[in-house]
Amino acid sequence: MFSKSRIALALAAIVLMPATQAVSADYNPPIYVDEAPDYQPVEVGSGWYLRGDIGYAFSHPYENSSNIPGFSSSRTLFDASVGMGYHFNDYLRADLNLGILPSNKFGDSVDTTCAGSTTTTTVDNTSGTITSQLTAPDTRPCNGSSNALNKAYSLMANGYVDLGTYVGITPYIGAGAGVVYDKYASAIGAKNCVPSTSSVVSNGNTITTQFNCDDPAGYDGQVSSKARYDFAYSLAAGLSYQVTKNVSVDLGYEYLSIPSAQYVAYDNGLFNVHKGVNFQTVKLGLRYDLW
């Protein structure tokens, strides 16, 4: 009986051995995989901004002086610019701006004389024949005028240092350099000579007087103009306030100097060319960050 039991246990062990090996062979240890980092999108255009400014030149460039009747002048003391810039960090930024600068027009209107000749013709009314004809140099009153203009456009590269933010306000200082396209034009001594004809009847004759202009009608006068590109530099200071995440308002002062620029001015009847233009401007700007 004992022998039979031992034989049965041995047979059971032999039968179960392959199954145990199969279970052991099927076991796989757990695999640990590190989690991938969260996706961080790249902000295209981060640091770039657009800007627009308007300014008022309180220094009154292109000043004219005159005590002559008939002088008139108009000027635009406002300027404007648009541009694009980049924030290098929280303290340094730079931008490139294209602008239009203040301009002016002025001139005078005077009574003058136009040169010409007068032809006097006498016609017999009975026969219709010319009995006499005489031509002689002559002058007639006419309108005279002189006028001039100055205008300029700028392309400036500017750098700024933001001095920290206090209760939402960021003071800054800056400087810039660039090129200005400036132009002046003048027309001095323009005349408007108008031919005229008149006739009278006397003693059976018709006497016709005809004035012809030697000065051409619509004479533009002595015309002069010059356009050139000149170096310019600027100094700036101001305050900016961030209204929203992307929008900031800027209030500042700018000194813009164009040392070699030429412009024409009215000096008590004389149209003189001067050199060197400076603008002192209060500016109001708007910046939009492309975040």
Describe the structure.
The protein is mainly beta and 291 residues long. The protein has one helix and twelve strands. The longest helix has 25 residues. It is rod-shaped and about 140 Å long.
Brief description of this entry?
This protein is mainly beta and 291 residues long.
> Average pLDDT value?
86
Intertermini distance: 92 Å
Q: What is the name of the CATH topology of the domain at 49-109 and 149-190 and 222-289?
A: Porin
* Share in β-strands: over 45%
SSE layout:
Blueprint: H1 2-26, E1 48-57, E2 71-76, E3 78-87, E4 92-100, E5 103-124, E6 130-162, E7 169-192, E8 196-202, E9 205-213, E10 222-242, E11 247-267, E12 270-289
Antiparallel strand pairs: 1-3, 1-12, 2-5, 3-4, 4-6, 5-6, 5-9, 6-7, 7-10, 8-9, 10-11, 11-12
Keywords, separated by commas or semicolons:
single chain, 291 residues, mainly beta, Porin, eight-stranded antiparallel β-barrel, 1 helix, 12 strands, 66% strand, OMP/PagP_B-barrel, signal
